[in-house]
Design brief:
- The complex is a heterodimer of chains A (248) and B (315).
- Chain A is α/β, with parallel strands linked by helices.
- Helices cover 28% and strands 33% of the residues of chain A.
- Chain A has a single domain, classed as Rossmann fold (3-Layer(aba) Sandwich), CATH 3.40.50.620.
- In chain A, a hairpin with a 2-residue loop joins strand 9 and strand 10.
- Chain B has 315 residues and is an alpha/beta fold.
- Chain B folds into 2 domains: 168 residues, HUPs (Rossmann fold), CATH 3.40.50; 118 residues, Rossmann fold.
- The termini of chain B are far apart.
- Classes of the chains: A alpha/beta (248), B alpha/beta (315).
């Protein structure tokens, strides 16, 4: 089975976020970048599936050269090959179109992307890829089993989960639950050495027409100082919530 | 040129987030000088459908044979109804996140998700959205003639306008490659993303057996229960309750953080909440910097007192 995992390089979740150029650009200097956590669950699931039923795992990203350390990390974790479409991602539609165009030429049986990337949180790329390829799609996927050309899938819905089945090829928007946090893999030295010689193909981007534009950013207003109430005076807290904040 | 709103239902009923989307659509329609048309998927009774009129929907197209979990069929049904619409509104639910971007690709209509404000201009539409897991607010604009906006739950007040809502049945029964086998839901649970009050607890509770008082407090307040990431990772609580950057986002009116230290990833998920209360034994816990009110104290002493005081207030 040919599995393609779409990945993006995002600021480490502990990062403090700042903007530059008059609050129009994300300030990336001093930021540690990581594999988007939702994508990492998908990559690990792809490795588990490959080990169980055979096949190949290829990762694909739309990004400039600064995303290469993240791509090498996915190869060190165990992906067989990687493709980087050379374009700083600016808009969900053009990002999805680049990936869909590649997949039209190089079809996959299973396409796994994270349900959203933890930078811009658009959450749109996986569904768009599915539409552009005319494939079924399940988002917020927290369970996946493959048998032959069929998939059994569960997705998170409000207050529970929905169970579905689908034929392959299929596009998945993955998240925690696809595999458990404890199943995530840390690259070992052998993996890191092997990653250096695995193929990383760089393709020039073709799309230019963004459907949306980011104008500017601001940070939420700072909170005022917390009002501390004595632990022996819980009544005071209830009174503040009732009379001052008017929330209970 | 109408405004189309996808009005999601759960087991035949609409929820607050549905009416928020309708209210948002109605305000957008006012800006554009047009009407609101809704589209509903799956079985919903006429009584329930006409409730949409309270929030400004003048017509609802009811596709009772289309399953919302089948994103291909749902997208095609909405696209067919959308051919006269310049703006499409969704509430950003798990299901809408499957359908709205598909529709964006199909119609080549720009999409903005996690929207938290109305546009002040009709053309182009410019809206604020949450980005970087609520660590930033982004002003974004749509460059295409048709725009799709997916609004963040709990970001808009309901606006009752009271128009007459007519129902149009659409009997199309297209199917995609997906089959819905069934679902497993805990009945009576309040959705974390829609809840007005959320009671959340962390490792400070020392073990899953101590969640009784958290559930009691939540029930008393009509609140949803939530938890921190470590608690869901070690299996004390289900993943569905994990709130934070890699879990769910919360925009509650009132958020209780009990025995949660306040890692930056957790705070990112909850900082859209209006009032935050932290209860923690450690006075240096980062949560006290993000909270509006706090008690430095032991949850096992404070929470039972809190329950008693709220009961007295309600009495």
């Amino acid at each position: 089975m040919n599995i393609v995992v779409c990945i993006s390089s995002v600021p480490d979740t502990t990062s403090k976020i700042n903007f530059t150029e008059n609050n129009t650009k994300f300030e990336s200097s001093g930021i540690q970048f990581v594999i988007n956590p939702n994508d990492e669950f998908g990559l690990t699931k792809a490795m588990v599936l490959k080990e169980a039923i055979g096949g190949t795992v290829k990762v694909i990203t739309v990004g400039d050269a600064t995303s290469e350390p993240i791509i090498r990390k996915t190869l060190a974790i165990g992906a067989d090959s990687a493709v980087r479409i050379n374009k700083a991602a600016t808009d969900s539609y053009t990002t999805a179109l680049e990936i869909a165009n590649y997949l039209k030429e190089n079809p996959a049986d299973l396409i796994i992307a994270g349900k959203e990337s933890l930078d811009y949180n658009g959450g749109a790329v996986p569904a768009m890829i599915a539409e552009m390829l005319g494939l079924p799609f399940v988002n917020a996927c927290n369970g996946l089993e493959i048998a032959g050309t069929n998939a059994k899938i569960s997705r998170e819905i409000d207050g529970g989960k929905e169970n579905l089945s689908s034929s392959l090829p299929l596009v998945i928007g993955g998240q925690k639950g696809l595999v458990e946090e404890s199943a995530l893999r840390i690259p070992n030295m052998r993996g890191i050495m092997q990653a250096r010689s695995k193929p990383l193909e760089v393709i020039e981007a073709k799309t230019t027409e963004d459907l949306t534009t980011s104008i500017s950013f601001e940070k939420p207003a700072e909170k005022e100082a917390c009002k501390l109430v004595d632990a022996d005076n819980v009544a005071e807290l209830v009174s503040l919530l009732h009379n001052e904040a008017k929330v209970i | 040129m109408s405004v189309l709103v996808y009005t999601e239902s759960w087991d035949g009923s609409f929820r607050k987030s549905t009416f928020e989307a309708a209210s948002y659509a109605s305000e957008t329609a006012k800006l554009l000088g047009t009407e609101v048309v809704a589209i509903s998927l799956g079985e919903v009774s006429n009584d329930e459908l006409t409730k949409l009129g309270n929030y400004g929907v003048s017509k609802v197209v009811s596709c009772c044979a289309i399953e919302k979990g089948d994103s291909q069929a749902a997208t095609n049904a909405i696209a067919k109804t959308a051919n006269d619409s310049s703006v499409l509104i969704f509430s950003n639910t798990n299901t809408a996140k499957m359908i709205a971007p598909r529709l964006s690709a199909k119609l080549k209509a720009g999409i903005v998700s996690n929207v938290i404000t109305l546009s002040e201009t009709a053309s182009p539409l410019k809206v604020n959205r949450q980005a970087f897991s609520s660590k930033a607010i982004e002003l974004a604009t749509v460059n295409t003639a048709t725009a799709i906006l997916a609004i963040a739950p709990n970001s808009f007040k309901l606006i009752e306008t009271g128009v007459n809502c007519t129902i149009e049945e659409d009997s199309s029964n297209e199917k995609g490659a997906i089959t819905i086998e069934g679902k497993e839901t805990a009945s009576g649970k309040i959705s974390i993303s829609e809840a007005e009050i959320v009671v959340s607890a962390g490792r400070g509770l020392k073990g899953p057996e101590n969640w009784g008082m958290i559930e009691e407090l939540a029930e008393l307040l009509g609140a949803a229960t939530a938890c921190s990431k470590p608690v869901s990772d070690i299996g004390w609580r289900p993943h569905g309750e994990h709130v934070g950057q890699t879990g769910k986002a919360v925009a509650a009116d009132l958020y209780f953080a009990i025995g949660i230290s306040g890692a930056i990833q957790h705070l990112a998920g909850i900082n859209s909440s209006k009032v935050i209360v932290a209860i923690n034994t450690d006075p240096e816990a980062p949560f006290f910097k993000a909270a509006d009110y706090g008690i430095v104290g032991d949850a096992f002493e404070v929470v039972p007192k809190l329950i008693e005081e709220i009961k007295q207030l309600r009495a």
